[in-house]
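Researcher: Next sequence.
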Amino acid sequence: MGTVTMALVAWLLTGTPETGGPPVPAESPGTFVAKTLTVRGETYVYSVYLPLGYRRGQAWPVILALHGAGSRGTDGQQPRTQSLAEAARAHPERYPALLVLPQCPPEREWSGDVADFALEALERTLVEYGGDRKRVYLVGQSMGARGAVQLAARHPERVAAVGAVSGRYPDRSLVGRLKGLPLWMWHGDADAVVPVSESRALVALLKSAGHTTVRYTELSGLGHDIFDTVYLDEAVSTWLLAQRRGR
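Model: Next structure:
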């Protein structure tokens, strides 16, 4: 797609009267829908991205994407700029799926009540927008990679596949609960934020425990911020969306 055409698509999807583009109705395909959710008295924010071509009455794949520490907050906006969301907007044909983009509050992690909030946001999206329960995927980058793996270990029966990029995995007890779950992990071998040894160690444990569905890609010479490289790789979206529970 040419530069002019891409610019026109972006203008049509995101334009407003202030920016010179036409207003886009809420809950239109190709838009983010702002949501709130209260868990145990605390209100959290999340967004749902509706893919181009979205229409009700069809069962859509659903990807729960957990961001890294740098996108924590309460504005609901920063998770929309994480690499998976940007890749889905740049290449909508590769990610024909609902994206669930929860935001972790400041100074928190994807555990405890925050993890429960992310799971509830996923569940509400499945019900509200017609998600396919056999095609639910968890992905995460950096802090979110750990969160995605931990959530998958808690509820492997709900997940078709997991993608984890540049993560740290201190809880080795989850290895046994991931057996049989398709998992693709990535790490840059020059990562100065989270040592590549974190992914290497978890992969080694999984394989020694007989996990035959784990894949690992190590990117030579690259550091922590490999997220765009991963999600813009067509092989990644092809693999992820090809996974399905119950087959």
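Model: The chain has seven helices and eight strands. The chain has two domains: 1-25, 31-242.
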